[in-house]
Amino acid sequence: MRVLHWMDEFELAVCQRFNHYNRRRAVSGFFGWISRLGDGAIWYALMLALPLIHGPQAAWVSLQMAVVGLASLPLYKWLKRRTSRRRPCHRGRPFARTVDPLDEFSFPSGHTMHAVGFAVILVAWLPVWAWLVVPFAVLVAASRLVLALHYPSDVAMGALIGATVAATVLGLVSLL
């Protein structure tokens, strides 16, 4: 139990370090904007635009991205309910809050999960997008820490789930 308490305190300290930068208006505005883009609308718009940009065959990529999102969602919701981990910004510490969370609990980061999962699929099929979606996925993950909405382990687990589900989808598709 002592180790868990130490880890929790360590993660809170890391969150405070990241959140320190959120006190600057430009940083706060930038990461707030990135976070809102990561809510999903940008990904859905991209899924719709891919066939228009790359032709009808890109609909297959969009479908796989949608499957990743739909397949990871039940696990995400189950973990949120099961762990009921309070967000760093709700822990009574002096965090600079500029963006309200979409739900009550923090583990895992759904924003990171979707950003990583979608990016893995997109880059696997259309590597030309890597220059845009990989940095965006990293910024989405960083935004969760800077805004004190998630702990580092929430972000890491979100990335792991997203990458694992995406790799599973790619693996299943290769069998077809």
Notes on the structure:
73% of the residues lie in helices and 0% in strands. With 176 residues, it is mostly helical. Helix 2 (25-37) crosses helix 6 (130-146) and helix 3 (41-54) runs antiparallel to helix 4. It starts with a helix and ends with a helix. The model has no long low-confidence stretch (mean pLDDT 90).
The share of residues in extended strands comes to: under 5%
Distance between the termini: 47 Å
Tally of contiguous helical segments: 7
- The geometry reads as globular
Structural class, judged by helices and strands? mainly alpha
Largest sheet: none
Q: How many DSSP-defined strands?
A: 0
Portion of residues within helices: over 70%
Question: Which whole number gives the mean pLDDT?
Answer: 90
The ordered H/E elements are: HHHHHHH
Cα-based radius of gyration, to the nearest Å: 17 Å
* Parts with pLDDT < 50 across at least 5 consecutive residues: none
Helices and strands in order:
Elements (H helix, E strand, L loop, with lengths): L1 H19 L4 H13 L3 H14 L4 H25 L26 H16 L4 H17 L5 H24 L1
Gist?
The protein is an all-alpha fold and 176 residues long.
Structure keywords:
7 helices, 73% helix, single chain, mainly alpha
